């Protein structure tokens, strides 16, 4: 049941927030397809006091975000409805169905869900019509994967390479995607966002502070939950041996806790 996308002509696409403010909003920032059910839903709301038309499709992740030929990947999913009118201040539920075969069963797979708000034709001369496109991550999670996805961030293996002290490596040994934000060493940001695929490795550059006396190295970050929330993690930055970073512990003297 591959998802197909119709060709739209005469529509200008704005993908940079701030160029235009859309009337359509989604009920979540990510969507989890549970392999035990093989389906998931997400709600689309129309905040405008007028009817609006949306188009939705599913695609595989792409480095350039939008394929030049306008084609989407042939995926074993069906998205319904993929083209629908939403009444003024109304809502529409999008339903995503998995065929049951065609996706890896030993790890999560990530896809992209696009929702395009198609503008009405303006009667005014020389007026630009803008279509707002939103994109969220969709994670297909096969049934029976080992471990709890909520604990995946605590299972990441970090290591500061002794021979290259300005490099911090991280390995994701879990079958789940881990989305990290606001990664910091001693309060200095080293990455604003990093998505770690299952069983993958990555490297991050660590700033050389050069302070005297030396400041104890601390690694902190936030990890996204299935519901779009964030959880804080913090630990001393060790050298040599791989280490894990636990949840930040509550501290009675600080609202944000301590390592």
List the keywords:
mainly beta, Immunoglobulin-like, 259 residues
What is the compact description of this entry?
With 259 residues, the chain is mainly β. It is built from no helices and 19 strands.
CATH superfamily of the largest domain: Immunoglobulins
How many helix segments? 0
Q: N- to C-terminal separation?
A: 48 Å
Per CATH, the class of the largest domain reads Mainly Beta
Radius of gyration: 22 Å
CATH topology of the largest domain: Immunoglobulin-like
Order of helices and strands: EEEEEEEEEEEEEEEEEEE
Question: Major sheet: size, sense and barrel closure?
Answer: 6 strands, mixed
Seen as an oligomer or otherwise, the chain set is single chain
Overall number of domains: 2
Beta-strand percent range: over 45%
Number of strands: 19
Name the shape in a single word.
globular
Ranges where pLDDT stays below 50 over 5 or more residues in a row are 1-19
- How does CATH name the architecture of the largest domain? Sandwich
Overall pLDDT metric: 84
Helix content: under 10%
Give the SSE layout.
Elements: E1 12-14, E2 24-26, E3 30-34, E4 39-46, E5 52-59, E6 77-80, E7 83-86, E8 91-98, E9 109-118, E10 130-141, E11 157-160, E12 167-171, E13 178-185, E14 188-196, E15 201-205, E16 218-224, E17 230-236, E18 249-251, E19 254-258
How is this structure best described in words?
The chain is mainly β and 259 residues long. It has 2 domains: 12-141, Sandwich (Immunoglobulin-like), CATH 2.60.40; 149-258, Immunoglobulin-like (Sandwich), CATH 2.60.40.10. 0% of the residues lie in helices and 46% in strands. The chain has no helices and 19 strands. The protein has strands at 12-14, 24-26, 30-34, 39-46, 52-59, 77-80, 83-86, 91-98, 109-118, 130-141, 157-160, 167-171, 178-185, 188-196, 201-205, 218-224, 230-236, 249-251, 254-258. The strands form 5 sheets. Strands 1, 3, 5, 7, 9 and 10 form a 6-stranded mixed beta sheet that branches. A 4-stranded antiparallel beta sheet has the order 2-4-8-6, with no helix packed on it. It has a 4-stranded antiparallel beta sheet with strand order 14-13-16-17, with no helix packed on it. Strand 18 and strand 19 form a beta hairpin. The protein is globular. The protein starts with 11 loop residues before the first strand and ends with a strand.
């Amino acid at each position: 049941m591959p998802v197909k996308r119709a060709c739209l002509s005469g529509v200008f696409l704005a993908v940079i927030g701030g160029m235009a403010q859309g009337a359509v909003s989604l009920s979540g920032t990510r969507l989890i397809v549970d392999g035990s059910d093989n389906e998931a839903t997400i709600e689309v709301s129309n905040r405008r006091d007028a009817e609006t038309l949306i188009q939705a499709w599913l695609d595989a992740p792409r480095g350039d975000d939008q394929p030049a030929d306008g084609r989407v990947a042939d995926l074993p999913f069906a998205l319904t409805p993929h083209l629908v009118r939403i009444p003024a201040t109304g809502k529409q539920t999008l339903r995503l169905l998995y065929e049951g075969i065609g996706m890896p069963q030993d790890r999560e797979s990530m896809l992209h869900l696009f929702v395009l708000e198609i503008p009405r034709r303006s009667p005014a001369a020389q007026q630009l019509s803008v279509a707002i496109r939103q994109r969220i991550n969709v994670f297909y999670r096969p049934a029976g994967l080992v471990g709890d996805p909520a604990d995946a961030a605590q299972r990441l293996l970090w290591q500061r390479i002794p021979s290259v002290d300005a490099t911090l490596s991280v390995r994701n040994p879990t079958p789940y995607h881990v989305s990290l934000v606001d990664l910091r060493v001693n309060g200095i940001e080293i990455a604003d966002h990093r998505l770690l695929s299952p069983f993958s490795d990555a490297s991050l550059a660590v700033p050389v502070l050069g302070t005297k006396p030396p400041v104890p190295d601390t690694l902190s970050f936030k990890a996204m939950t299935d519901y779009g929330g964030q959880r804080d993690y913090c630990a001393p930055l060790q050298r040599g041996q791989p280490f894990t970073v636990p949840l930040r512990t509550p501290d009675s003297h600080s609202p944000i806790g301590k390592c």
